[in-house]
Amino acid sequence: MRSAPTPPPRLAAEEGVALGGAIALFAITCAWWALALWPVQDGPAWLERTRLVCFGVAESGLPDAGGWIGLIGGPLGMFAILLAGWGDGFRSLTRRARTSRPVAAVLWSLVLGTVLLAGGGLGRVRQEGNARTIADTIVATPAGAQARLDRAAPALALIAHDGATRSIDQLRGRPVLVTFAFAHCETVCPLVIRDVLAARERLDSIDRPPAVLIVTLDPWRDTPSRLPAMASAWSLPERDVWVLGGEVAAVEATLDAWEVPRSRDLRTGEVTHPSLVYIVDADGRIAFVSTGGADAIADLVRRL
């Protein structure tokens, strides 16, 4: 390559701002995408909360639609601002790249890095899709993919947010949705509760709409006195939907009987758990189990 001519001072300053801004934008985008997409097994609670606040949480565990708009539209918008403010600098850099190996190397590195970043994000989405193949099949085609379990529901009798002891036996003669959540959860729990309540609304016209029992996964903090506040925070209907708790030993025994996978961090009290909804028929037998999705849950109830 021929040696690049030295640009005028004003243009050189614009080149410096344009190149520095592009490098900074690329570094920030890499960090932002890593925060949103880097796979973390049993990550700390602060990371889950940060991801939820910044990117939302879709059912797949990846960012929701708003999160993707921020991940993609944010960097593109900032790059457009750089072009609008320092377009002469970018154009000058492009011209100089034809004659300057260092400038060309930096610009091509940014282009290649952007391509690799996009490819990595696409690979992460595909990886999550493969990992959730079974769950997605259950949610997407419940009528064909789920065989009826038809086994007796374990005992369930705990204190409800209205102060009464509620048991699954009291609800014989109607379907029951049994799920599990806790007050401090900001990721899986709000989604599964939303899905269960939405499914119940979809089933309001059937002869016997399902009751809903939400068992706390954190009886240490979700004491009976706190259950009314949880019901209010989750906007539970006044009838036929209860959040349940009680003594730690009683709640833990119930969770064990219902075979609920969970892991509690003794430092923070946070509980790692899957999205799980049992569909119990009018005879008190577990008919199906779902990983969530309002339509999927409603379809399973209609199959009872």
Description of the structure:
By secondary structure, this protein is α+β, with helices and mostly antiparallel strands. It has 2 domains: 9-131, no CATH class; 140-302, Glutaredoxin (3-Layer(aba) Sandwich). It is 52% helix and 13% strand. It has 10 helices and 10 strands. The chain has helices at residues 9-37, 45-55, 65-97, 101-131, 133-140, 142-145, 188-202, 227-233, 248-257, 294-302, and strands at residues 151-152, 157-160, 165-167, 176-181, 211-216, 241-245, 263-264, 271-272, 277-280, 285-290. The strands form 2 sheets. An 8-stranded mixed sheet has the order 1-10-9-4-5-6-2-3, with helices on both faces. It has a two-stranded antiparallel ribbon with strand order 7-8. α1 runs parallel beside α4. The protein is elongated and about 85 Å long. Residues 130-144 have low confidence and may be disordered.
What tags apply to this protein structure?
Glutaredoxin; 10 strands; alpha+beta; 2 domains; 304 residues
